[in-house]
Specification:
2% of the residues lie in helices and 38% in strands. The chain is globular and about 65 Å long. It is mainly β.
């Protein structure tokens, strides 16, 4: 995160926080805890309380447990491995028992392929280095009351591998949009950045 901006409550006592997010995308969000730096973004974001007691007790939700909330999913593809990570879901007053992972080769066409414990928030899908088609993933949280919705689908394009001679593409930019130099000098037009 960048600078803290503001915290308020809505008319029912749920906490709202407005901030500028400096860690966007799987490369930043899935970085190890001891990493330094960020994604150098300044994306406007609002975080809203989704469960639990509120600051105005008159509007506290009933004590009856409900189905869990939807986790936020990120996916990072490096060669034949897709690294999935998701946020801990709002448990709805009943512990998360498991997460169901879904994958597909077309948008909205994902099928379950794995189930992990309710304490696990990461999974590596071994898709193979020959599979270069775009893939689509979502994750569903489960508790004793049922399951969250699954509309957190993310798409993952193949961008190479860090072990390939051509590297892993970390940034791409359209051709012909260089600024601050002669338009005829194509060497100033950076169209991709890859690491290996």
């Amino acid at each position: 995160m960048l600078d803290f901006m503001d915290v308020q409550i809505d008319q029912q006592g749920r906490v709202l926080v407005g901030y500028s997010d400096g860690c966007v995308g799987a490369e930043c969000m899935q970085a190890p805890d001891d990493s330094v730096g960020n994604s150098y973004t300044a994306l406007a974001a609002i975080a809203r309380q989704s469960g639990g007691p509120r600051l105005l007790a008159a509007f506290d939700p009933p004590a009856t447990p409900t189905t869990p909330g939807l986790p936020k999913l990120t996916a990072l593809r490096n060669g034949g491995i897709v690294h999935l990570a998701w946020s801990e879901a709002d448990n709805g007053g009943s512990p998360i028992t498991s997460y169901t992972l879904l994958a597909g080769t077309a948008p909205g066409n994902a099928a379950p392929f794995a189930s992990v414990a309710g304490t696990q928030l990461k999974f590596d899908d071994q898709v193979g280095s020959s599979n270069t088609a775009p893939l689509y993933y979502s994750v569903i949280a489960n508790n004793a009351q049922g399951s969250s919705c699954g509309n957190n689908e993310v798409s993952v394009a193949y961008v190479g591998a860090s072990t390939d001679p051509n590297g892993y593409t970390v940034a791409a930019d359209p051709a012909g949009d260089q600024v601050g130099g002669p338009a005829a000098d194509k060497d100033l037009d950076v169209i991709s950045l890859a690491v290996s």
